[in-house]
């Protein structure tokens, strides 16, 4: 196995264009640094339109796994570095190809790029010069300059020459936080964590809000949400989780006896609380895991009546996704196994037999106006909100030892 010296991280097209570039690059750079804290030997270097991670002996595959989570980075290539002189380049290129243990008839091409113009051979000449010894040593390989299986890049720079051929897809999207902040309504289900990841991938910083009906809902259900937020924090670095006491409101809404509208009423109350929390935390939007038509509360008609409870943008990243697609994403980002644990959510406690799929806004508003003290209860839920700071697993433990500012640990 070849020992790689460095990783080359590329930005997406959009991120590197225009006047936003310095801001995007800075955000991606700090995200890279924050995800690599547990690899003390790596050095992170920014270059024009790229980031280099010098490994200094750290294991490339583990570092790559971390870096695949950096939003705004479209691909990663592990790089072998070699002295910039012809002899070293030719011998290292041959060893590089040999180390790939390619099958018979595999096609390759060499794509040399002379970045350092004082190097005595042109890019074109280098393509030929590098291919020669490879073909001599690996006689089972063939050259195909149009559609090769392996494209060996040789970047000739003054200080070193970079050899690489692998291009590993990364998260893409926009660097974290470059599109502002939103509050994610995080339930214990499959959808909302995926919605949160999608929002982060679009460059949104997120804070999570979870409504619990303790003691109707168990501590286990809360722990599950904390674990979900922890997984999201692997992508977002540090994430806040606001735990909102929802029992009184839920009980009062259930007291209206409007069984078929109870979910609509609860969702509206959640949005109103979330809007206030967004205001307090300088977030400009709410994010939910709604998917059109998935359940009664997610028909267009329900979404309309529920959505009117807030006056800030309500983002629903999964609105047009199929459940299968959402499940697949949940598996990829690592939230699925947790999401399917069977702990009750505050809403599942009051699931009506026949929830309304076509609620009427006027009627819903009238019912709300008839709930005594609803406004006060919403205020009280906001003031009773407990905020946790969630960090990826490894750091949680360390910080806990240091007895840090955390309100509460699990
Ligand atoms: P999920 O899988 O995200 O729970 P779902 O398909 O089960 O979604 P609902 O339970 O109707 O759908 O919830 C719709 C959305 O409302 C959720 O995606 C989430 O954003 C929000 N939500 C529901 N319950 C809660 C809760 N207890 N705390 C915070 N947000 C919630
Ligand atoms: Mg749910």
Describe this structure in words.
The strands form 2 sheets. Strands 1, 2, 3, 4, 5, 6, 7, 8 and 9 form a 9-stranded mixed sheet that branches. A 6-stranded mixed sheet has the order 14-13-10-11-12-15, with helices on both faces. The chain is elongated, with a radius of gyration of 27 Å. It folds into 2 domains: 6-169, VC0802-like; 181-409, HUPs (Rossmann fold), CATH 3.40.50. α4 (86-99) packs across α5 (123-137), α8 (247-254) runs antiparallel to α9 (262-280) and α9 crosses α14. It has 410 residues and is an alpha/beta fold. It has 15 helices and 15 strands. β13 (285-287), α10 and β14 form a beta-alpha-beta unit. Residues 396-410 have low confidence and may be disordered. The protein binds adenosine-5'-triphosphate and magnesium ion.
Give the key terms.
Rossmann fold, alpha/beta, 2 domains, VC0802-like, binds adenosine-5'-triphosphate, 6-stranded mixed sheet, single chain, 410 residues, disordered C terminus, 9-stranded mixed sheet, binds magnesium ion
Mind sketching the topology for me?
Blueprint: E1 6-11, H1 13-16, H2 21-35, E2 43-47, E3 50-54, H3 60-67, E4 73-82, H4 86-99, E5 107-114, H5 123-137, E6 142-143, E7 150-156, E8 161-164, E9 168-169, E10 181-185, H6 191-201, E11 205-212, H7 219-236, E12 239-245, H8 247-254, H9 262-280, E13 285-287, H10 300-307, E14 314-315, H11 323-333, H12 336-339, H13 361-369, H14 374-383, E15 386-390, H15 393-401
Parallel strand pairs: 5-6, 5-7, 10-11, 10-13, 11-12, 13-14
Antiparallel strand pairs: 1-3, 1-4, 2-3, 4-8, 4-9, 7-8, 12-15
Helix pairs in contact: 4-5, 6-7, 6-11, 8-9, 9-10, 9-14
The structure holds adenosine-5'-triphosphate and magnesium ion.
